[in-house]
Model the fold of this input.
Amino acid sequence: MLLSALLLTTALAAPAASDCTGLEPQAWADLCVISSDEMKGREVESEGNARARAYIIDRLTEMGVETVGEGYEHPFSYEQALDFRDPNSPRETVNAVNVIGVIPGADRSRAIAVTAHYDHVGQNEAGEIYNGADDNASGVAALLATAAHFMANPPEHDILIMAFDAEEAGLRGAREVVAHPVEGAAPVAFNLNFDMLGYSPDNDIWAAGPYHTPALTPIVEEIAAEASIILAAGYDSPDEDPRNDWTLLSDQGAFHMGGIPFLYLGVEDHEHYHQTTDEFETISSDFFLGAVSVAVELAERIDADLDTVIGQDAAQ
Done:
């Protein structure tokens, strides 16, 4: 989720990427590597961010996910204030990189963008690392699991696998692809976004989006009935307290503002959110793997029922 005030806490010891070797299943290993100390908190333009990006690209290459355009990497840049507290302060150019691949579907005229941001907030002045296991190594691991599923089970529509950079700086990666659709990719008809799927003391996860797209409700309810974790729809109504409307609070917000329907999957804020304690060791494997299973099932159902989800008129 978007950057909030950072509070210093005592960090747990994070694993080294080498400590993740041999972990099973693959999504658990992916979460471990992406949230390891080697990634140094994955801040935009940092060496650790580049390491995380390289790992994602290696995984997509191993699976055989196709590139879009000249490769997986899609660079972009944006301007930001040097002092985020003062929008009128001098500005700097930030160079970021989205990672994008495609799994061809039977219908190549439109695509479902399955997304998760891989950046996080780096380190504090004391050198402590914000490893972002939940936010959002968990979402990237679910993204890779979804890619693996569709590689083994060819989809009905093109599946764009999008790992966004600079979400923490204001949904910059998602805003880039909405404003400048990726050349060579089918138009995006729907966005399924994963952000924070790893930690929930109450064993629950939320699907935001059915308020805006009611056809999603039966899909969410049917998957919830069989899930090993608690899945509920909510946090998407403008009639609620604005703090409880997640519509614009992660990358799905850019798609929504562009008129593209979405479903967002994520947990509620918790005590580790944007803290140095958001570590691999805080994640319950049972909950996380249950959330990954829900994520993959949502992707499968949305692909199968896309005409119903977006409406027949929008599909023509």
User: Anything to note?
Assistant: Confidence is low (pLDDT under 50) at residues 3-12. The beta strands are 66-67, 73-81, 91-103, 107-117, 157-164, 188-194, 204-208, 230-233, 262-266.
